Amino acid sequence: SACTWTSMPRLSAVSLARCTAAAVPWRLCASMAALGMASGQLPSFDDCTAGAGACVGELGGEETSLISVRPGTTTTTTTTVRLASAELLSTESYRYGKFEASIQFAPASGVVSSFFLWKRGSEGNETTWNELDFEKIEADCEVQLNAITGDPGPVSHESHPSLTISSCRNFRTYAFEWTPDYIAWLVDSKEIRRITGRLAKNFARNARQGMAFHFNVWPGDEAFGGPFHVRSLPVYQYIDWARYSAYLPPSGGGGGRPGRPEFE
């Protein structure tokens, strides 16, 4: 059956504390800021409880080194800046189905802004890694798609579709369709990637406990995300709504469309 988290009137770019104070599940203004700007406002994952429906928390005081060159010289200055970033995740995991969310990703070079599905515990050495990603990277707000596996992982299977959308200036509907036979990525109901065969079977076999919704914002670097500039902060990722719809196997006749799964 469908499970929907509804929207509320859109908020302007305010602090994470203001966004979560509304206490409406899944309506999040996820932020990343220099720690002095957001410190003390971000809740801890210790506040998450199994019955909460959704958890929001700080991704930690990540440190990044900023290297600047004095104009007209070769003198460099290295400054270490602590950053605060945020994540929203579901406390429930789901196996197979359609996972959707209306998102406006966070802008700026060096800022990774994402919607992904994650099998809890994937980071462990004694288990397989299972993760599906939409990740906004680079200053031009490119959206990268990824299916991550490995025993242990991570082992990435990336693709970089050419999208004629602005992922950082407008809300778009991003979706995963996860079935026993294929996994598809969709933007505004248009399929932009599909995997089948061994890679799809890996998820069917190794993610039997399901995967959870995750949304987060975090600092990248020149290798992934683009050159990071602290002056671009704070930045925000907006999530208007999220929805899970259960997988219905293809109908042999009568009920659904033969040969095609449905979601409700």
Helix and strand layout, with pairings?
Layout: E1 3-5, H1 16-21, E2 28-34, H2 35-38, E3 54-69, E4 76-90, E5 97-104, E6 111-118, E7 131-137, E8 142-149, E9 155-159, E10 172-178, E11 183-187, E12 190-195, H3 197-206, E13 212-219, E14 235-245, E15 247-248, E16 262-263
Antiparallel strand pairs: 1-14, 2-4, 2-14, 3-4, 4-13, 5-10, 5-14, 6-7, 6-13, 7-8, 8-9, 10-11, 11-12, 15-16
Beta content: 35-45%
Structural class, from helix and strand content? Answer: mainly beta
Shape: globular
Supply the number of helical segments.
Answer: 3
Q: Which sequence of SSEs, written as H and E, runs from N to C?
A: EHEHEEEEEEEEEEHEEEE
CATH architecture descriptor name? Sandwich
Question: Your description of this structure?
Answer:
It is a single chain. The chain has one domain (3-263): Sandwich (Jelly Rolls), CATH 2.60.120.200. The longest helix is centred in the C-terminal third of the chain and has 10 residues, at 197-206. The chain is built from three helices and 16 strands. With 264 residues, the chain is mainly beta. 8% of the residues lie in helices and 45% in strands. 33% of the residues are buried.
